[in-house]
Amino acid sequence: MTQEPQPGLGAAGQIEVAVRAAAGGVIDPELRRPLADLGMIDAVAVHDGVASVVVLLTIVGCPAADRIQHDVRTAVLGVPEVHDAKVELGVMTDEQRADMVTRLRDGKPRATTTFTADSLTRVIAVTSGKGGVGKSTVTANLAVALADRGLRVGLIDADVYGFSIPGLMGLVAPDGRIARPTRVGELVLPPVAHGVKVVSIGMFLREGAEGTAISWRGPMLHKTLEQFLTDVFFGDLDVLLVDMPPGTGDVAISVGHLLPHADVLVVTTPQSAAAGVAVRSGQLARQLGQRIIGVVETMSPMDLADGSTFEPFGAGGADAVAAALSTEDETVTRIASIPFSTVLRAHGDEGIPVVIEQQDDPAALAFRALADLVAKRPRGLAGRRLPVSVG
Ligand SMILES: Nc1ncnc2c1ncn2[C@@H]1O[C@H](COP(=O)(O)OP(=O)(O)OP(=O)(O)O)[C@@H](O)[C@H]1O
């Protein structure tokens, strides 16, 4: 980074300014903002070409400490007059942390969601009629494919009873423990997997209770989702995906109320039984003001090497759902068909989405095509204030 000379400073002072700028330009891996903007660069000194920088971490035991120390040292060594650099780590005081949280929230008070109708983040809820049809697999792969295109992507696992996103995204350790968010004051920083910021109810269960069933009632679930939208710091996102629980229960209604401007993807298999219930979840989303952007069929017919087709779940389900959801004013179409893929299933079990692990698999190609389509499609106007005035 080129630094403008500061008037009134001697040569040594100029070097210190350059060192501070270099260190301050390093991006915090969790907060994704420059360290200078976060108030994390404390003392800076340079003597005989040796730079000393004190970086204030947000919390004791910050998981990104080593990476920050390494990145700051590398950045500081990039200043021509510096031939050695020492980076010491300290920890912010409560006051400094509170100041940083306020900056991160852009001055907005607590309990305000950033995902309002006017925000630039596009919210996409992924829903299905019944469980086990491949909805979470679609959500995870779409999220990763969008992140791989350079978009800033967040993923909320709202499938509270059957949360499978941590597993699909590789956030579950071999002993079953799910990655935990980092807490900085009142902020909750979501773990990042394959370039996607992920939050799931499974991350907030008591340690050791990850495998137990959740038996919460509607109001408690609503509160939890509300907290995901207010207390979890996603930073600026281009897309927020929400993995919905199957069906038309309390959570679907809560998400509809909390995110009425969301676009909705309906996932179904080609089987008619799955298709029928998928229509109902799409209809509920529409009643809540959300816009259906398309139907994604998964476990679709798969082309075999001998030129024949394997149809484990029949054919035609998604087209039937799309037709049933279409109205005079709004045509809904099937926007993707993800073929049945054993490779996809195996990578899902390993926590590495097929879309990055085996890019030539037909299912991976179909996910990429879906991501292209979603990224290019203009977002809906539902719930947004239009820039018109009545004079
Ligand atoms: N296209 C596909 N080909 C083969 N297997 C698939 C495909 N899509 C999903 N699966 C497998 O089907 C199973 C269910 O998938 P997934 O968990 O995504 O479903 P879901 O609809 O989200 O279910 P739930 O709501 O119960 O979590 C998983 O084992 C997954 O690997």
UniProtKB/TrEMBL annotation:
Residues holding ATP: G129, K130, G131, G132, V133, G134, K135, S136
Keyword presence, Translocase: no
Coiled coil: none
SUPFAM superfamilies given in the database record: Fe-S cluster assembly (FSCA) domain-like (SSF117916), P-loop containing nucleoside triphosphate hydrolases (SSF52540)
Pfam families: FeS_assembly_P (PF01883), ParA (PF10609)
Keyword field contains Glycoprotein: no
Domain MIP18 family-like: 17-88
MF terms (GO), sorted A to Z: 4 iron, 4 sulfur cluster binding; ATP binding; ATP hydrolysis activity; ATP-dependent FeS chaperone activity; metal ion binding
Keywords: ATP-binding, Hydrolase, Iron, Iron-sulfur, Metal-binding, Nucleotide-binding
InterPro entries xrefs: FSCA_dom_sf, MIP18-like, Mrp/NBP35_ATP-bd, NUBPL-like, P-loop_NTPase, YlxH/NBP35
Protein family according to the UniProt entry: Belongs to the Mrp/NBP35 ATP-binding proteins family.
Subunit structure as annotated in this protein's UniProt entry: Homodimer.
PANTHER family: IRON-SULFUR PROTEIN NUBPL
Protein name: Iron-sulfur cluster carrier protein
Lineage of the organism: Bacteria, Bacillati, Actinomycetota, Actinomycetes, Micrococcales
